[in-house]
Amino acid sequence: TKLRIDENTYVYDLTEQKRNSYKDTDYVIMACILKHFAETTIKISNYHIVDGTTFYYIHVTVGKVNWMVQHRFKEFVELNDKLVTGHGISSDLLPPKKVLGNRNPEFLVQRQHLLEIYLQKVLIFLRFTMCREFVEFLDFNKYDIIYLLQDISNDFYDRGEAILATSTVHEFTSLDLYAITERLKLPCPSSDNVKKKFDFSHVLDFCSQLQSLIVRPRKVFGFIVKYQASWLKFESCLKGSQSATTVSKIDHNTSIGTSNIVPENLKFDLNAFRSLKSFKMYGINAENICDAGLLRQTITQLSVHSTSTTQINQILLCDCIHKTDQTDATKCWNELTTANFSSNCIQSIDSTIQLLPKLKTLILDRNRITTISNLKHLPYLSSLSLCENYIADCVDCHLELGNLKTLKLSQNRLTSLIGFRKMYSLVTLDVSCNQIASIDEVDYVAGLPCLEELILTGNPVSGIVDYRQRVLSRFGDRCTELYLDNEKAEGSEIDMALVLAALKQSEAKPLLLQTSFVNENCGISVACGEIGFQTGECDVSSTMRRFLKLLACIHMCLGADILMVTMGGTKSHKIPFIELARGLIPRGHNVTFLNGFIADIHEIGLHEVTPTGLIDYIQNFTNWDLVGARMRGDLPVSVWDVLRYPFEACNAMFEDAETKELLNQKFDLLILDGAFPECSMGLVHKFQVPFMYINTVGFYTNTLSLAGNPIPYSVTPVFYSSFTDDMTIVQRAINIALYEFMNICHTISMSVLQQVLRKHVGELPNVYEMSKNVSFILQNGNAILTHSRPFLPNVAEIACIHCKPANPLPKDLEDFISASGDTGFIYVSMGSSVKAANMPEHLRLLFINTFAQLPYQILWKWEGPMNGATEIPPNVKLSRWLPQQDILGHRKLRAFVTHGGLLSLFESVYHGIPVVSMPVFCDHDSNTAKAVQDGYALKLDLETLTSDNLLKGIIKIIHDPKFRQAANFIQYYLIDIFGILIISMYIAIRFIRYLTKRYSTQPKRIKDKIN
C-alpha cells in the first residue's frame, strides 16, 4: 500500500507482503543466494513519478527473505554500461531510451515489464559470480550473507589495522554477527583468490583481535546512541506501564530497512571473537546468543540494555534451553567483574547472580525490581546501582551487602533509611528522589564510620528550613568530612551544624549540676541567674540548651538578604521568581520580591513589595484586546507601546512610596528579570551589590549580548517571530532586520529611561555599561525544549524550574472529569497574559459550537463573567482559576488547547500532553514553532480560525498517536535523562550561594573569575 508522507515523499507499507512471507516458517532469517538461487526472483511491481522523475520499485526475493529497492531508468542505463564493458552482457538486453512520451502511463507499464525481464536475464547470466555492480544495484550487500560480508571484509582490509590501533572497541549489528556465524557453517573457503580485499579471512582476523564489542539491532546515530537506554522507558510511557508488576516490552519485530528481516530472529555465536574483554548489547535479548561458552571464560565486562528481559537468568544462561535458578559451576562467568543490566524489564535479582563469583560492580538501573536479594554470595561486590526501580523497603541490607562501598538507590520509593544502619563499609549512599520526609531518618546512617558522601536531593526532607545544617548536625564532628548532595560543608554551615549537634546532645543527655555558684564563677552565675534558679541549684543542661538555641536563632539571621525584581507586564514573569524563592527560603535566605502585581503568594520568609503605582500602570497598560487584534491582523501591541513601557513603568515604580521605603533597606544580592532590566539598574546603583538575571519567559538577547554571550542571528530567531533555528536565506535576512529594528527601538527607549533613573536615584553610569557587569544569568530554557544556544560559563539553563508533579484535583473538578468515563477531557486556557473573557463575541461562539460537538468534557479557564451562560454546553465547565499543573498531570487529559506561552508549553511536555496552540502575541509564535518542530503541538492561526479547523485540530491531536508519543519522549528526556526536577533548582541555588558567599561587597563577574 502506498503511503504519502508529504508532497514529495512516498513510502510503501510492506506489512501484507511480510505477513505472507511468514506463512511457511516461524521466522525469517537472512538471505543467502548461494543456498537459495532456485528460489530467487526479481520483480518490478510498480512505478511512481516524483517531481517529473519516474522511479521503479524492484522487489527481490531470496528464499523467505525479500526486500525492495527503487531506481530511475537513468540508473538502469548506468548499470548496463558497466555490465556491457566489464562483464560481457549484451547491450541489447536493456530497453531503449525514449525522449518523447516517456511519461505516458501505457509506455511506463511496458517499460516496467521490459526492465523486469532485463534484471531476470542478468541474474541468470551472473548466477555463478555476481559482480559488485549488480550486487549493489539490488542491495544484496545489505541483506545477503555473502555480499554483506564482502563489504565488511573490504572495510577491514582498508582500515582494520587502523581501527585496532586507535581503539579496542568496535560496533557490529546483529545482522553482521548472524552473517559471520552462518558464513562459518558454509562449505566455502574463507579466502578469495580473485579479489583479496573480499577475503572473509580479514573479518576473522579482525574479530580474533578485538577486545571490546558492541552489538545493536541496526546502525543508529546521534543522540539515539548516547541515550539508547531511553527507548525502553519511552516504550513504557507510551503503553502507560507504570506499575511495578507490569512489564513493558520493546518491539524488536521492526524489520531492517525495506526487508522482512527481523533482528530479534537472528541467532548468533561469538566463537570468532577470541580476545573479548568487554561485551555490550543494546536492544537485543541475550537469548539470541546461541553459544556463550567462550564469553564465560574471557570477558570482564558485560552489558545488556533496552530489552524485554524479565529475569537475570535469561542473560547469564542465555544459551541454555532450560533456565533454572539452581547454579551450575560449568556456567560460571569466571572473569566477569562488571555487569550492567540497566534499562530492561528485570523484576527481581534471582539466584543465578551467583554465577558471577568475582563480580565487583552491578548496575540494574531502570528496571522493575522491588527487593534486594540473592547478593550475599558475591563476596567481592563493592558497588551496586538500583536507580529508577520500585524498591520501597530495604530491610537489614547488611545481611545481603556486607562489603558494599557504593550504593545508589535514587528514584525509588524509599521512606526510611533504617535498613542501612549496619552497613559499616558504605562510603557513598545515593537515595535522591525518594520519599524520605523526616530528618530523623539521617540518624540511621550518621553512625556509619566510612560514609563520606550522602545524596538526599529530591526528597521531601530537602525542602525543610536549614535542611543542610540539620542533616550535617547529625554527623557531629564528622560533618566537616561529609559531602552532602555533592557539596562539602564549609564555613558558617559547619558552625551551625556543630551548634545544632551540641543542642541535640544536650537534649538527649540531661546533666544536672547539684551545686551553688559563687561569685568567682560570675559569668555562669549571671547566666544562670538570668534564666532562673531552681531552689538554689542551677540546671546547667537547660541553660546550655537555651544558649545553643539562641546561637541557632542568631545563625538563621545570617542568611543573605536577596531582592528579586521583575518589571514584566504579565503575571507569568512572576512564576519562576516564586519557585526560586521557595528554593532559597529553606536555606536560610531572606527574600524580598518587588513586582507590579497584587501580592497573592503567602510563603513564610517571602516579603512581596507591590508598589500601587506600578500595579495601576500595568493594569491600565495591559487592558488590551490581544485576541481581537490578532484576528483582525493588527499588531497586538503597537511600536509606541513597546517604546514607552520601560520608562513609564520605571517612573511609576520609583514614584511609589513603597519603593522609596525599600531604598532605605540593605541587600546582599539582586536577582533581576531579563525582561526590561534596565530600570532595576537604578537599584543596583543604589545598593552597590552584585546582581544577576533570570530570563523568565523568553530568549532575551539584549541581556545576553551585553554580558558578552554570542548571539548568532543566523540560527537565533527573534523571540516574537515564527521562525525556527532552521531558516532559509530570506528568513535569515528578515530575522536580521527584525533584530536591528528591535535594537534601534530599545536604544531610543533607554535614552529616555536614563533620564528617569537620574531623576530618582541621581547620577549613575549608562545602563548598558552597568548591564555588562552582570555576575550570572539564569536562562529559562533547555536544549531539549528550546533551540540549542551557545552559552558562556556565566549562563545556565533552568527550564521547568516551576514544574512539579500533579496533586489530586478538588472534588468538584474530579466529579466533572469522571462524568466523561474513559473518554477523557480537554483543558483550555489562554494563560495569564491573554484574557479569554476579552475575546470577540464571534470567537466565543465559535469555541462554544466546537466544544459542543466534541465527545469530551471541557475544562475552560475563563477569567470574567460570560454573557449568555445558558449557551454553555453541558460538557463544558468554566472557572476563573484552575490548578493547571494538577490538570495537566491527570491521567484522563487528552489534549491542551492554549496560546503558546513558554511556561504552559514547558508544563505540557513535563506532563507528556500534546498541545493545540493558537499564538496571540510576543513569544507565542516562536514557542509554538518550536513545539510544532518537536512534534508535540499543532498550530492553528486565529486569523483564519473556523469551527471546522478547531474541531479537526483537536480530533487530530488526540487521535494521531505521534503527538502524544513526541510529548512522552521529551517528557522522559526531561525527567529521567536530564533530571529536570533536581538540576534546574540545584543550578540556580548553587550559583546564588556562590555569589552571596564570595561577592558581598561590590559587583563582580563570575565570568572573569572563571576565565
UniProtKB/TrEMBL annotation:
Keywords: Glycosyltransferase, Leucine-rich repeat, Membrane, Repeat, Transferase, Transmembrane, Transmembrane helix. InterPro entries: Leu-rich_rpt, Leu-rich_rpt_4, Leu-rich_rpt_typical-subtyp, LRR_dom_sf, PX_dom, PX_dom_sf, UDP-glycosyltransferase, UDP_glucos_trans. CDD domains: GT1_Gtf-like (cd03784). Residues 34-145 form the PX domain. The chain crosses the membrane at residues 970-989. This is Nischarin. GO terms for molecular function: phosphatidylinositol binding; UDP-glycosyltransferase activity. It comes from the Eukaryota. Belongs to the UDP-glycosyltransferase family.
